Amino acid sequence: MYKASIENPAGFWSGIASSEFYWKQRWGDQVYSENLDWFKGGITNVCYNCLDRNIDAGLADKIALYWESNEPGFDATLTYSQLLQRVCQLANYLKSVGVRKGDAVVVYLPMLMELPITMLACMRIGAVHSVVFAGFSSESLAQRIVDCKPKVVITCNAVKRGPKTIFLKDIVDAALIDSANKGISVDVCLTYENQLALKREKTKWKEGRDIWWEDVVPKYPTSCDVEWVDAEDPLFLLYTSGSTGKPKGVLHTTGGYMVYTATTFKYAFDYKDSDVYWCTADCGWITGHSYVTYGPMLNGATILLYEGAPNYPDPGRCWDIVDKYKVTIFYTAPTLYVTRYSRKSLRVLGSVGEPINPSAWRWFFNVVGGSRCPISDTWWQTETGGFMITPLPGAWPQKPGSATFPFFGVQPVIVDEKGVELDGECSGYLCVKSSWPGAFRTLYGDHERYETTYFKPFPGYYFTGDGCSRDKDGYHWLTGRVDDVINVKGQGIYAFVTPVEGISYSEELRKSLILTVRTQIGAFAAPDKIHWAPALPKTRSGKIMRRVLRKIAARQLDELGDTSTLADPGVVDQLIKLADT
């Protein structure tokens, strides 16, 4: 299939799009163009394909969503027909308050059922949702509101994360004040009452703007006409951090994203109709869009949503959930592996968020998967829409730590610093040549930045920003970000290093680290200077915020950007003092 997808991409993707999805009108003669348009002229709707199409295929009574609360003992389910009714009620409400095709709706919700309901309702009427992770600060939320100018903001009053209550409505209130001071006012703030976290009488309220979800949405009809849209019409906006701290509004469009996300899910996880699928990502990230909501739902899957913390009330919570729902496909980040234990229901494991080192891979395979579950070690980005390099279960032997080979239609290349393609066994910068259906189309309101960031570094290629090695067997090994190396005035690369317990700082260790990077990744990534750091700025999801390290090294301390997602913001002050020495 891969060979066919490269030799005849138009025929390959046209065949999948025609046979697997509903189109009100077929696209024209040109399936795709090199400016990334796919299926242009085709008329469809993602919500219809997620719900109505599957219901018509006999899945009306199949469980679409299992929901597990942060608090043990509280759960809920929705079938595909019930989900469609809930989606239509919200869609009708949104139309009643003036939301139309192309309008933006900002969504600041935790992992409640109301989150995918909101996403699907927006798509049903052609609105463009922008989901913001419900852990971002009011400042970050306000930035996104100002940028996309939504008609409506949808949130809930509060959420419990472990034992802690987060007052989301207070954060939204502050963001709306901030955005109004910058000239962008929002007339409607639809608020869901999360009774397990906070009763409505304790919620701060602004009459005339704030509306309780439960007071209005259930009153609307349970059917709603579909707004048919062009394949190249905007689908959603998802903001990701930029090198300057200003968020980038990644814009995905309808047809290509729908086809690509559904197809990657189907093959990368070897999906079967009997599977129960759980991805631990939040819908505030691209993984939650593509592989919590749209990819699985377009395949008619049963999806598990979990509201809470993975270790609450104890480290075995996740595995209690796996047992309860008989989860068969489990997709999570390497930083969560240490809290997992083997479960017999599992059939396929997936890894996302960061490269998985060989020892973690073996632990995941042997301990979590009981030495029987294939691992889909996926590499992709917010910008790519779906998996780009990933194993296909059973298709070829796996190598611990390798993302293996490209997915259908993807042509990865490794280039040197001059943009020259490297053949065979090599290390360098990972780029992609030619187009694929899931690619994003622009950065909202800043197309120049889109071209400068992704296409100008190596003309003729999409630059991923990642380093990659290819071994003698053609397997790909992702080495992490290369556009986040800490380069000061073009002169040198810095590294902040935290030794493990029992290892002391020394000149010998410094030289050893430089040699290791030079040997395993390549000379282009070898650090010129190493700082011994007590800790690194990590987000609550476990990712290192490299942008902060780069700004500290460059002494651009007034350009650190938003650091509200750091697990320990005090680390930043420690690193600043360290850099001064």
Compact description:
It is built from 17 helices and 26 strands. The protein has 581 residues and is α/β, with parallel strands linked by helices.
CATH names the topology of the domain at 484-580 as: GMP Synthetase, Chain A, domain 3
The largest sheet is: 7 strands, mixed
CATH class of the domain at 484-580: Alpha Beta
Biggest sheet strand order reads 3-2-15-14-16-17-18
Looking at CATH, the homologous superfamily of the domain at 484-580 is: ANL, C-terminal domain
Structural class: alpha/beta
Query: What is the molecular shape?
Result: globular
Helix content: 25-40%
Rg from alpha-carbon coordinates: 23 Å
| CATH architecture type of the domain at 484-580 | 2-Layer Sandwich
**Mean pLDDT metric:** 89
EC number: 6.2.1.1
Domain Acetyl-coenzyme A synthetase N-terminal: 1-50
Domain AMP-dependent synthetase/ligase: 60-435
GO molecular function, one term: acetate-CoA ligase activity
Give the tags.
581 residues, GMP Synthetase, Chain A, domain 3, 7-stranded mixed β-sheet, 17 helices, 26 strands, 20% strand, globular, ATP binding, AMP-binding_CS, ANL_N_sf, acetate--CoA ligase, AMP-bd_C
If you had to describe this structure to a student in words, what would you say it looks like?
Residues 487-543 form the AMP-binding enzyme C-terminal domain. Residues 1-50 form the Acetyl-coenzyme A synthetase N-terminal domain. Belongs to the ATP-dependent AMP-binding enzyme family. The chain is α/β, with parallel strands linked by helices. The chain has a domain at 484-580: ANL, C-terminal domain (GMP Synthetase, Chain A, domain 3, 2-Layer Sandwich), CATH 3.30.300. 30% of the residues lie in helices and 20% in strands. It is built from 17 helices and 26 strands. A seven-stranded mixed beta sheet has the order 3-2-15-14-16-17-18, sandwiched between helices. Helix 5 crosses helix 6, helix 10 (254-268) crosses helix 11 and helix 16 runs parallel beside helix 17. The longest helix has 17 residues, at 80-96. It is globular, with a radius of gyration of 23 Å. The model is unreliable at 485-492 (pLDDT under 50).
